Amino acid sequence: MYNDEQNLYHYTYRKDGSEPGQRYDARSASGDAQSRPTVDEQLNHFESGRREQPPIQEMKPVKKNRMGLKIAALALVCALLGGAVGGGVVWAVGNGGSGTEVNVSSRPATAVAIKTVDGKNDMSDAEVYAAGVNSVVSINVTGTNGTNFFGQPVKTASAGSGFVLTKDGFIVTNYHVVKNADTVKVTMYNGDEYEAKYVGGDEDYDIAVIKVEAADLQPVTLGDSDKLNVGDHVLAVGNPLGELTFSMSGGMVSSVNRAINVSGTPFNMIQTDASINPGNSGGPMFNQYGEVVGIVSAKYSSYSNSSVEGLGFAIPINDVFAMIQDIMTNGYITNKPYLGITGGSMTEQMAAQYRYDIKEGVFVYSVEEGKAAQKAGLQMGDVITKVDDHTIKTMEDLTAVKKQYAAGDTSTLTVYRGGQTISVELTWDAVPADKQSEEASQSSGSSNNGQYGNGYTNPYDIFDYFFGNRFGN
After folding, report:
1. For residue range 5-43, what is the model confidence (pLDDT) as tens digits?
2. Active site members
3. Architecture category of domain 337-430 in CATH
4. How far, in Å, CA of 369 to CA of 424, rounded?
């Protein structure tokens, strides 16, 4: 209790306000000790004051409720001791007969069994990762990208992902990950490293096959991408940013058969909202059964000057598996359709220059002798406007449509010539081996040029440009 008697401050725990002993007088605190009243005088003064002053109202100290702090402290103790005690434990906090119980679990960590991927039984995300991570590889590439101001080669470095297709070391990845590579190094989940050899690839489909000298590797199990539905759960495992190796991200199938254009090249893709970043390219997309249904390939981070989120894409495995097998056997795609022209997109300027009545289509600059276009009667100056029922407005349209055919297929081309529209019958040729070899032999320049945004290449400044220093992860 606090008492105020003529500026005399005194504190006592007694309910009646009294307490024997000496009080402190603020008015005489600095005076001579000899002028201070004796103990008897103080007692007499105290008794007199009690008789003269009205009763002092008792002011009880406010008791702070520390129950919340006690509970928090006990919860922390429970968390620390829970593992040692074992089993569920109930802790009681008593306060004046009342009790508060805190339930603490000591559940052990869940053991993840490595299951066999059979395509029949769905699996948890942890089980998919455990079953498939030993089939995923990290890929690091070095190369050159032209020369600097002094004529010295500019070194490049990039990173991507891939997955083991066969026990004897065939590995699938994206073409843009290993394009124009000088060296390709593969790292397995257990830390084993291999120097990989480029077998072959195709830029139009963004697929490539590399080979390491190894035995008894763990291959993936391929699934059926045609069975994917919008809303199905999918997982991507790869090497984001070239550093966060063997990371898994999850999401759903946002769309199937999504036609997108990546740096001028059209692709038929699986769209997903799973987190995909530079370095994930070439890695597997798993379904909920642990099967590979796609090859992670691209991501939109911006569109029309707007930032976007959750737009990742993967190549459906059904679309490219036959080509992958062809590359493994022959080093290139033997039945890839070939037209045999040099062409470009028609523009308004070209229409004005050549006095054409149309402003869209593929302008034929030249026709290769003995190939499909010449056999069909195409000529320089023709403009291709349709292939069968597919409207052709640009060269990208023609490239996209061509993917729907194989060597030996027959198509009807609608062509603008001399102010008239004509139709020609064309049988697709196969891409010549020397054309494929030329494409593969270009693997001695720069690595990924960033056109797909997922093979990871570090940026470099003007100093690096002049002195050829370009480093990656």
Report:
1. 444 444 444 455 555 444 444 444 444 444 555 555 555
2. 176, 206, 281
3. Roll (2.30)
4. 17
